[in-house]
UniProtKB/TrEMBL annotation:
Annotated signal peptide: 1-24
Domain of life: Bacteria
Family affiliation: Belongs to the peptidase S8 family.
GO function term, MF aspect, one: serine-type endopeptidase activity
Keyword Hydrolase annotated: yes
Any one Gene Ontology BP term: proteolysis
Keywords assigned: Hydrolase, Protease, Serine protease, Signal
Active-site residues, Swiss-Prot/TrEMBL: D127, H160, S316
InterPro entries in UniProt: Peptidase_S8/S53_dom, Peptidase_S8/S53_dom_sf, Peptidase_S8/S53_subtilisin, Peptidase_S8_Asp-AS, Peptidase_S8_Ser-AS, Peptidase_S8_subtilisin-rel
Domain Peptidase S8/S53 per the UniProt entry, residue ranges: 119-364
Species name: Metalysinibacillus saudimassiliensis
Gene behind the chain: wprA
Name recorded for this polypeptide: Cell wall-associated protease
């Protein structure tokens, strides 16, 4: 069973793939390195299509010649040191890139040859850093900053940012732009909102006109949003990747930010790749599969060539194409604002069939063959509305005068005069309904209609509103809240809110199909307490600390002695406590862990819960206390979990790759995985409470969760080894 996972922090948006490079034809020749005492290779040099370097003792010849008897005998004699493919290589600056499918698909050859840069535009690559010594990049990279190590050396230790930087230059065809490297993601491709926000501020304050962010994660971040708005207010174009989970963009940041350019990924013969995210927040689509670009040579392990170039998949690859294109436009037309460039790209994109907007393609696929700034644009830019106070955005370009009127749901929102190119906003109170008809009308001074745009716009309604109060009867800081629905006795996650910097006040959940479910449930973590409750649609749910039960924990594996040798352990991986509520037979986890160092206490709503502890520090362990009635129980003693069982996880059948990590997680049958788990260790076992589990092996690539293999209904009574083989399992007991 394969399941895709959702990142709950900021990760580089590259899909897990080991694609062919696609930049050159398959090699027809092989290179044979031979020893000095074999004369057969000198004789072969007289044949066609053979090259001999006699001094260095290697020969290139057609690969079919390997079957010749003379060569086979030389191999048997030990005269051959190694044999490898004789690949054709690109020039180090990738100038031949305009012949590649992605450049042709975008129309880069004609576009880049028609523009004349008037100034250099700085494009900030906010990512894992950039290999500024790479031969294809060194002449284009400025001095930058590393917010991970807090120094002025943004060298890429992961590879993602270098690949993105190369694509950015390809989008501009190496003209009119310079790369500002800003390292905010570590060697695993992960980073914090504080580092990302700091990187955005740094980029703006150090001259960036364009910022590319091929990163993102689940949940909104006000800290990061403040930085993005800081950039937009200073006329900086912000281009971001849509993400690679094949999910809606909603509640993923920064992709869900309205005023950035959110880019999805297309393939050679496909409008949208299977991995690309989608939704009403999508702006444009660009090539994002099998994209050839730069890679630090010491990290170039994907195609086996180790030449500093490779192909990768992901919306991370689509976004920098657009960032480079925007950079070249703004260097050629420095008078244009970020809004004007956005309107020009959207109006000239290849639109979805019979529609001006599509949730899979946004305003269309970027097309530049006939790009021009000499045109008129009228565009209804708003693609969704939120219930309550909101605004409709309408863009115009190339009109020196005129008025715009907006009608929503048959009601006029008024008219505004055009004073410059860009966006105008029309405020409204959005009604509680699934969608609304919106029409924007452009008129000249005499009142004649020049253009009109109409769209049926979806509305995100506030179906269930959650408010949590702490012990002081103040709004609690909510870190995660989830709305579930039950249909045909199956629990489904309908909507999830993750606030990486916490949120106080109301959280509204929208589900247009709530009436199709037999029951609705909500769970939340606020102020280090978990709440879970059955709710009704159209209900405002207020959870108050006075309603909670205090549960004290004793004798967990995490209560290490207060010794100096454990100090670093606490810093690296504090103990993790994950309560799971079981209501009406349906298990709902807190989804985010709650951390404690010793004597943990948790405040929970009344009900039957499972309590779990996860140790990824000194020990690898999962402890579970099941079906605890929190209304009657005040203390949980984990000595009562019974005998612990050792599990060894065998992953020898999995591909070994330096950027691939595996994490093991046992989950009680019927519960959802938390998608964290413990690192797989060939020597160290994992201790778990006896019982029946669904076993998960989570795969992470460059720090980003990619997929899970699940082995269902494994009964754990004795110590055993668990073999994972592409979702299948066999077990072997090795003791009692």
């Amino acid at each position: 069973m394969i399941k895709k996972l959702v990142a709950t922090a900021a990760f580089a948006c590259a899909a897990f793939a080991l694609p062919a490079t696609g930049h050159a034809a398959e090699s027809e020749n092989v290179i044979i390195k031979y020893t000095a005492d074999d004369a057969i290779f000198k004789q072969l040099s007289k044949e066609d299509n053979v090259y001999l370097n006699e001094e260095q003792q290697f020969i290139s010849l057609p690969k079919q010649k390997l079957a010749d008897t003379a060569i086979q005998q030389a191999i048997k004699r030990g005269s051959v040191t190694y044999i490898e493919a004789d690949y054709k290589r690109q020039a180090s600056n990738l100038q031949e890139h305009l012949k590649m499918w992605d450049a042709v698909d975008l129309g880069l050859p004609k576009f880049t040859s028609s523009l004349r840069p008037k100034k250099e535009t700085v494009v900030a690559v906010v990512d894992t850093g950039v290999d500024y010594a790479h031969p294809a990049l060194k002449d284009y990279v400025l001095e930058g900053y590393d917010f991970v190590q807090d120094d002025a050396d943004p060298m890429d230790e992961q590879g993602h940012g270098t690949h993105v930087a190369g694509i950015t230059l390809r989008g501009a065809n190496y003209q009119g732009i310079k790369i500002l490297p800003v390292r905010v993601l570590d060697e695993q491709g992960a980073g914090t909102d504080s580092h990302i926000a700091s990187g955005i501020y740094y980029a703006v304050d150090n001259g960036a006109t364009v910022i590319n962010m091929s990163l993102g994660g689940q949940g909104l971040s006000q800290t990061q949003r403040d930085a993005v708005l800081y950039a937009l207010e200073r006329n900086v174009s912000v281009v971001v990747a849509a993400g690679n989970e094949s999910e809606e963009i909603y509640n993923k940041y920064p992709a869900s930010e309205r005023d950035v350019l959110t880019i999805g990924a297309s393939a050679k013969k496909k409008a949208l790749t299977d991995f690309s995210n989608f939704g009403v927040e999508m702006d444009l689509v660009a090539p994002g599969q099998n994209i050839y670009s730069t890679m630090p040579r010491n990290l170039d392990r994907m195609d086996g060539k180790r030449d500093g170039y490779t192909a990768m998949d992901g919306t991370s690859m689509a976004s920098p194409f657009v960032a480079g294109i925007v950079g070249l436009i703004r260097s050629s037309y420095p008078e244009l604002s970020y809004e004007e460039v956005e309107l020009l790209l959207k109006s000239q994109a290849k639109r979805p069939a019979n529609n001006d907007f599509d949730v899979n393609a946004g305003f269309g696929h970027v097309q530049l063959q006939n790009f021009t700034t000499d045109k008129q644009v009228f565009l209804l830019n708003t693609t969704y509305l939120n219930e309550g106070a909101d605004a409709i955005q309408v863009g115009s370009y190339g009109y020196s005068e005129g008025t715009i009127e907006v009608i929503a749901g048959g009601k006029s929102l008024g008219s505004q005069e055009i004073t410059k190119n860009g966006m105008l906003e029309f405020a409204l109170e959005t009604p509680k309904q699934q969608e609304i008809a919106v029409t924007a009308i452009l008129k000249d001074k005499a009142g004649n209609v020049l253009d009109k745009a109409t769209r049926t716009t979806p509305i995100r309604t506030k179906d269930v509103v959650l408010n949590v109060k702490n012990e002081k009867n103040e709004n609690a800081e909510i870190t995660v809240a989830t709305l579930y629905g039950v249909k045909d006795d199956e629990l489904e996650q309908l909507s999830m809110f993750i606030e990486t910097n916490t949120k106080t006040g109301d959280i509204a959940f929208s589900t247009a199909t709530y009436d199709e479910y037999d029951a609705l449930y909500i769970s939340a973590v606020a102020d280090n307490a978990m709440y879970a409750r059955k709710v009704n649609a159209q209900e405002t749910v207020t959870l108050n600390a006075e309603q909670l039960n205090k549960i004290s924990m004793k004798n967990t594996l995490f209560n290490y002695p207060k010794e100096k040798r454990f100090e670093k352990l606490y810093e690296v991986m504090p103990p993790i406590h994950v309560p799971t509520a079981v209501i009406d037979g349906h298990a709902m986890s807190s989804l985010l862990p709650i951390n404690f160092l010793e004597n943990p206490t948790v405040y929970v709503d009344s009900g039957n819960y499972d309590f779990s502890f996860i140790d990824m520090g000194k020990y690898h362990a999962f402890l579970t206390m099941s079906d605890v009635d929190t209304a009657k129980t005040k203390t949980i003693d984990f000595r009562n979990t019974g005998i612990l069982t050792r599990i060894h996880v065998d992953t020898s059948q999995y591909m070994s790759h330096p950027l691939l990590q595996l994490h093991f997680e046992p989950v009680k049958v019927g519960h959802q995985p938390l998608k964290i788990g413990v690192p797989v260790d060939a020597i160290q076992p994992t201790y778990i409470t006896r019982g029946t589990y669904d076993m998960y092996l989570h795969s992470y690539f460059m720090g980003m969760p990619v997929m899970s293999d699940a082995v269902k209904n494994v009964r754990v009574v004795n110590n055993r080894t668990l073999y994972f083989i592409s979702g299948e399992q066999t077990t072997h007991e090795f003791g009692r």
